[in-house]
Design goal:
The chain folds into 2 domains: 119 residues, no CATH class; 85 residues, no CATH class. It is mainly α. It is elongated and about 65 Å long. The chain contains 10 helices and no strands. Helix content is 68%, strand content 0%. The longest helix has 38 residues. Helix 1 packs antiparallel against helix 2 and helix 1 runs parallel beside helix 3.
Length: 228
């Protein structure tokens, strides 16, 4: 039979979510020294939400085994509840980190470090790599969109761009998340109106590398360009 959370557990879950929101809000306003405090509060409230699932053992000859079985079942249920909650919270947290990074709170390296910290906690809860990969879909879509912007010179329309190609240029910026063009397509588009500089060639190569490995090879090259 499925066990529902009681009111105290719900209260602590709500407090943990509020702590999470507060953590990224202070990050948005560059109060980065408060981020560890908010993170600790989030984890603490999350733990308190499920502490009530564990009962103390009563050491008696007749009751110990039954008590252990009951506690093990409740511990397994608590772990499952925590895993399901993390599966919901982790993608939201990652999207907040990446989205706020566009507004100047986190540079590329800091955002990647936060991502790895979040994923480390997720992996400790024995969540499968397949599910973790799904959590990162929106993160990867953000990065792919940024690469496209950096390569075509957004947000400003290049002065050398012919009027006939402006619609296509704007179209690349309006593609739905996760439908970014390939490096080869972008290279072909650029050659229609300009020469490809060594810096743009590096960005094209890095974009291709990211699509294959999901790894940002040169984070310092990207930070001054973020525009979305």
């Amino acid at each position: 039979m499925e066990r529902k959370m009681n009111r105290v557990q719900i209260l602590f879950v709500i407090l943990s979510l509020l702590s999470l929101i507060a953590t990224f809000t202070v990050g948005l306003y560059n109060f980065n020294y408060l981020i560890p405090v908010g993170t600790i509060a989030f984890l603490a409230f999350l733990c308190f939400a499920f502490l009530g699932s564990f009962k103390e053992f009563k050491l008696s000859a007749s009751g110990l085994e039954a008590k252990m079985r009951e506690s093990i079942k409740k511990a397994e249920s608590t772990i499952n509840e925590t895993q399901e909650l993390i599966k919901v919270l982790a993608p939201v947290t990652l999207s907040l980190v990446k989205g706020k990074g566009r507004l100047g709170s986190y540079n590329t390296r800091e955002a990647e470090e936060l991502k790895e910290s979040i994923l480390k906690v997720v992996r400790q809860l024995n969540i499968s790599e397949e599910e973790i990969s799904g959590m990162l879909n929106e993160w990867h879509a953000f990065v792919e969109g940024d690469f496209v912007d950096w390569i075509i010179g957004a947000p400003l329309i290049p002065q050398t761009l012919p009027p006939a190609l402006r619609g296509k240029w704007k179209g690349y910026r309006r593609l739905p998340m996760g439908e970014s063009p390939s490096p080869e397509e972008l290279r072909k588009f650029l050659l229609e109106y300009t020469e490809i500089t060594s810096e743009t060639e590096t960005l094209l190569d890095d974009y291709g590398h990211y699509l294959e490995t999901r790894e940002i090879r040169n984070p310092n090259l990207l930070d001054p360009r973020s525009s979305r």
